Automatic annotation (TrEMBL):
Coiled coil: none annotated. Signal peptide: none annotated. It comes from the Bacteria. Transmembrane segments: none annotated. CDD domains: TMR_SDR_a. Residues 2-284 form the NmrA-like domain. This is SDR family oxidoreductase. It comes from Pedobacter hiemivivus.
Amino acid sequence: MILVTGATGQFGSKAIDHLLNKGVRPSEISALVRNVANGHHLKSRGIEVKVGDYTDYDSLVKAFQGVEKLLLVSSNDRQAFENRTAQHINIIKAAKEADVKHLIYTSFVRKTNFENSSIAAFQNSHVQTEAYLIDSGIDYTILQNGIYLEMIPIFAGEKVAETGVILFPARDGKASYVLRDELAEAAAHVLTTEGHEKQIYSLTNSTSVSFSEIAKAIGDQLGKDVKYQSLEVDLFESKMKQFGVPDLYIGMFTMWAMAQAQGTMDVVDDTLEAFLGRKPTTMSQFIAQIY
């Protein structure tokens, strides 16, 4: 029995699709959801739906009974990062009590000296979870996923086709963007093949890209000139305020832009390509699909 947490979310739902595509019988998959009403489409496919909340330990222990492999999709809790760590540890403890044999965790790509980056708090949540999992005694696989390609349109702005300008303070930094669906496919590969116990995998694209390259790709696709402007952070933030962007989003944009400027996500690895059996979707291919 394989259990997927966050089963109605964008990653978990794709992982289930790929498990089915790989020939896993629906009766061998269970899905963890917070609200049973959200799981009707999974039930209709023959998948067992279990109700549990990352913050409710007893519900997790109950849901994990009879589970051999568990895919822990990291929490998307938008509160303090330490809340996410506590939720992850709750799941690992419950998995241990329920005698889960193998836990696969979706972490985030990391380089040395990440402590000095703008996403250090976010990274620490994963670092602490990884350490707890490794010490738990459960067989583990850690998937250090790259940043999603799907973030590019968000960072570029919804009016880029109209304005022909990308404002983003990422300087000349590069990041290895990767398609969320392909990361979910890689997770399904790990769940359905042998030899992944006690392994840490870096799942990134085969090339890293800058926002200058992203702007050119968007411009080529739109058939117009698209300029990339890396403003100083304070000027960027003041312009975002002028545009009516909420402070929460301004903070998020700044954090990730600075992380790219610092090269925090500039990691290239061929493990994802090996798991997929093909080249991962490139930034240019993604841009051609989106624009």
